[in-house]
Each structure stands twice: as structure tokens, then as C-alpha cells.
Predict the structure.
Amino acid sequence: MIRRREFITLLGGAAVAWPLTARAQAERVRRVGVLQNFAADDSEGQVRLTAFGQGLQQLGWTVGRNLRIDYRWNAGDAERIRKSVADIVALSPDIILAAGGRNMTALQQANRTIPVVFVTISDPVSGGFVESMSHPGGNATGFSILEWSLSGKWLELLKQLVPQMTRVAVLRDSANPGGTGQLGAIQGVAPTLGVTVTPVGMRDAVEIERGLKDFARSPNGGLIVTSSILAEVNRDLIIALAARHRLPAIYPVRYLVGAGGLLSYGPDLVDQYRLAAGYVDRILKGEKAADLPVQAPTKYELVINLKTAKALGLEVPPSLLARADEVIE
């Protein structure tokens, strides 16, 4: 049924409007499923999906006209991931946007035909999501967030800021292939820096709190928070525990330093969602995920929070400040 305003618009357009309207009505509505690894009310998750939506809109896709988007949020919870993946696959969308290794692992088990564009994946090759970065080969492609060598860089930067550090706790997700790879890279460079490594699980808040409390009993410690949705979901707790136990900590995501973390080194993850819209557009227009290379970040940003450094009694070396892309005062 045509509403009055729409009917008047049609009449006012006369003969020119009718062909345009007919084409608009005939335009196929494509369906995109989104598996987001934050909770639905998480502000960072909303920011990233807003960037994705804006990217699609700039490419001519409009929800309600030629696009429908179905969202599932799971906050990194294993049971919710399984359910959200099953829900999205059952909808038979034209394409799926999947965030994070946990979503991708579950999705690959449930689907090998629907095209997938992934974001914020640590190592899609070792995770089994693609055959290679240049030739994905299957139904998935997307955007990785780091090479394993970056994980070693976290330890180097933290040691530069805290020369007296001889021990480091590494918060990592043992259920995610990326968590194991990041830990291995850190362990690889630790002996040359005179640092011993203590892995700490982050399955839930209880494990995080107990692990950091135990680690902080001895002096000269630091903390590396590896890339995982569990770190972001539990970010307030982790930042608070680092402050309480006076553990200098480095994070993989820039916004965690704005929330009170000491320093971070990593790519712009919001931009990955914007770029993902381009791959979704290309696949919807006929290209194959197998032929679109996985893209790695071209820049990593160093962010330092001087207020947090002061609270920990640390003086940031001028050489480190000079390298910073952003300094929060």
C-alpha cells in the first residue's frame, strides 16, 4: 500500500519518475549477516559497526532499499557464539561479516559456502581460515591485525619504558590460536631482554583477577595484554587491576589507553571495519572471496598515557615520546 506522501511524490514526478520508481522497486535487497564479538551495548562495538555501515553507505548500499543487515552479538562467550553462528547461517545471507578468531572458528565449522569477510583476526593462515594471505582459496577473506613479530615488539616497548622490569605476565586467550602465537613470539624475545614470561589465562574475570594477583606478589613485574575479544570485554577490570597492583601494562588496542591504560601499540581497528565494507561491496557485486587477498595493517600506532605513567611513578624516556603517534596528558 502506498502512503499519501509517497503517492504525491509519484504524481509530482510525472512520466520521469515512473521508470526510476519501477527500477527502485525491482532492485534486489541483499542480506548481510554480522557476527560481532562485543556485547550489544558495548560502545566500542557500536563505533566499529557504525564505521562498517558508513562504508557501505558510501558505496551505494542503503538499509531498507537494497540492503538488510542482521546482527548477532556474543561478547566472546562460547555458548552465545555457537548460537549466534547457527542463527546467522540459518538466515542464508548473501555474505557474512565476522569479527575475531572465536567467531571465525565456529563459523568455519558451520559454513563453507556463504562468503565471509573477517576483521580483527590475528593469523588467518594458522587459524585455518584461509590457505594463504595472497590467495585465500576458500569462502573467506578479510583483514588481519598483526604479525606474530608485533607481539615481541610489545615486550620491547614495555622494557624500554620500564628498564627494571625482569618479569612479565602475558594475558592471553588459550582457546584462540592467536593467543598461543602471540605468547610464543613474546617468549622468543624475552631471554634477550632479560625477562621471564608468565602466561595468565583470561577465560573469565575470576581467572584474570586471580592470575594477576598471584603474579603481582613479586616485584619488578609488567603486563602484556594480548589481542583478544576477552581482553576488550574485560578491559575495565584489567586496567583497574594493573593500577591496583602497580603493573606497567601495554595493550594491543589504542582506545584502552584512553580508558586509563599505560601504552598501546597496534593498528586502527575501526578502520578495518570501514575497509571491510569495500570487500563486502565487491563480493556482492560478483567477485569471489577466494580471489581477494587478506590485507594486513600498513601502520601500527604507539599511544602513551602520561597520566597513568605518573601514577605508576614512571618517567617516559624522550626517545619513546618522540616515537609516539599520540600522547595523552
Notes: Residues 4-26 form the longest helix (23 residues). DSSP finds 13 helices and twelve strands in the chain. Residues 1-25 have pLDDT under 50 and may be disordered. The first strand starts at residue 30 and ends at 36.
